[in-house]
Design brief:
By secondary structure, this protein is α/β, with parallel strands linked by helices. The chain is 26% helix and 32% strand. The chain has helices spanning 39-48, 60-68, 88-96, 131-136, 138-144, 156-165, 175-180, 230-240, 273-282; strands at residues 29-33, 53-57, 74-81, 85-86, 100-108, 112-116, 126-130, 149-153, 169-173, 183-187, 197-204, 216-223, 245-252, 260-267, 288-296.
């Protein structure tokens, strides 16, 4: 196989291919949305350190599959962005999975406009990036590149790879991707919101250690009947127990027409008395409750 045209970091030597992982599982492997250079990789490195063995996969669904199949011990997936909101693909996977959330990581997001080093800006005919990244840079793109075709790809790093192969393609991606694929940063920090950040979840087949840290968060899914006041009945126990909600999102329940599931994050650990009282009071108010896990809040 001929060598790739773009520079490759030594970090890539620590990436494990799926076929090389023993079916009994590798305790040191972390699966994430690849290829190398994504913000998901940044989340992996921040939480586990840069020397952890990484398993690049093509989709968010594949992250869940690799951990569920014990080919990786942990998986890291984006769940929400401070500008664009929830990552629906991740939420849909959480509905079906048996995995547990054991940690969260928050990564500041800085998007850059990247070109191949021999590319001419006037010759750019398309701009590629992940759907969320294109949305996070919507105003900048409208102002500076209103008539150039914008195309969604599977990840920012994939966008950088495509730009490295074609002088007429520009990518929106992070500085790590620019270094990895040998691109020049034409314009830095083009995101519409300066304080843009993405929250990632760390997933495992094993539940997190039960000991509360005093600064924890719990994530649950709540299925309700399609009746007036259903959401109020679910939220009332949190108010009575003075448990603070940090997020609530709604997604269609795929096993029933016009029924919904609520994604609720709140402060506290499942062993806290107030949280246990909330769970007790939710019985009879919801059709089903799925506890995704209690875990320490991300620093910062």
């Amino acid at each position: 196989m001929p060598p790739p045209r773009w520079p490759i970091s030594l970090e890539s030597l620590r990436v494990t291919e799926p076929a090389s992982i023993n079916s009994s599982g590798n305790k040191d492997v972390v699966a994430f949305l690849g290829p190398l250079g994504t913000f998901s990789q940044s989340a992996v490195d921040r939480h586990f350190g840069p020397d952890v063995v990484k398993l690049c996969v093509a989709t968010i669904d594949d992250v869940f599959v690799e951990v569920e199949a014990a080919r990786a011990r942990f998986g890291v997936v984006p769940v929400e962005n401070s500008t664009e909101g929830a990552v629906n693909n991740t939420q849909d996977c959480l509905v079906d999975t048996s995995l547990h959330i054991v940690a969260e990581v928050v990564i500041p997001i800085e998007h850059n406009f990247l070109l191949r080093k021999d590319a001419v800006a006037d010759g750019i005919t398309r701009i590629v990036s992940h759907r969320q990244s294109l949305a996070q840079c919507r105003r900048w793109l409208k102002e500076h590149w209103p008539h150039v075709d914008k195309q969604e790809v599977s990840s920012n790093a994939e966008a950088a790879r495509l730009a490295a192969e074609d002088p007429h393609t520009a990518a929106i991606a992070g500085e790590r991707a620019a270094e990895l694929y040998g691109l020049r940063i034409q314009t830095k920090c083009i995101q519409d919101q300066y304080n843009n950040s993405t929250r990632f979840l760390v997933l495992s087949r094993e539940q997190a250690p039960p000991t509360p840290t005093g600064r924890d968060k719990t994530s649950i899914l709540v299925y309700t009947e399609n009746k007036p006041g259903a959401l109020f009945r679910v939220l009332e126990p949190f108010e009575k127990q003075q448990v603070s909600l940090t997020k609530i999102e709604t997604r269609p329940a795929r096993d029933s027409i016009w029924a919904y599931v609520f994604f609720i994050d709140f402060e506290g650990h499942c062993e806290d008395p107030a949280v246990q009282n909330v769970f007790a009071q939710l019985q009879g108010r919801a059709v089903k409750i799925k506890n995704l896990g209690s875990y320490p809040m991300a620093a910062g």
